[in-house]
Design brief:
By secondary structure, this protein is α+β, with helices and mostly antiparallel strands. It contains two helices and four strands, in the order βαββαβ. It starts with a strand and ends with a strand.
């Protein structure tokens, strides 16, 4: 993760779904409109029914975060990924 980035979203996918780090980063860059992003993946945890948790990071001052979220949701849907997305911003 680059300096001055914060976690903006976390999500899990359906039981049989996954996404690779390069594809996820590309999707996240397009949603944000910047290449200053990073992604993370935590091993499955018991609280998430044995599914990995993905975290999306971007610069703290990212503009139009609500629009970014809408674009991201549309991209996930277009990729036929059933994501349970949680916004970490206010």
């Amino acid at each position: 993760m680059a300096r001055h980035q914060i976690a903006l979203f976390t999500f899990t996918l359906g039981n049989t779904e996954s996404i690779g780090p390069a594809a996820l980063r590309d999707m996240w860059m397009r949603a944000c409109g910047t290449s200053n992003v990073s992604v993370g993946r935590r091993a499955p945890a018991e609280t998430f029914r044995d599914r990995p948790v993905y975290t999306l990071y971007a610069p703290q001052g990212l503009a139009d975060i609500r629009d970014v979220e809408l674009r991201l949701r549309r991209m996930l849907e277009s990729a036929h990924l059933h994501a349970s997305l949680t916004a970490l911003h206010a």
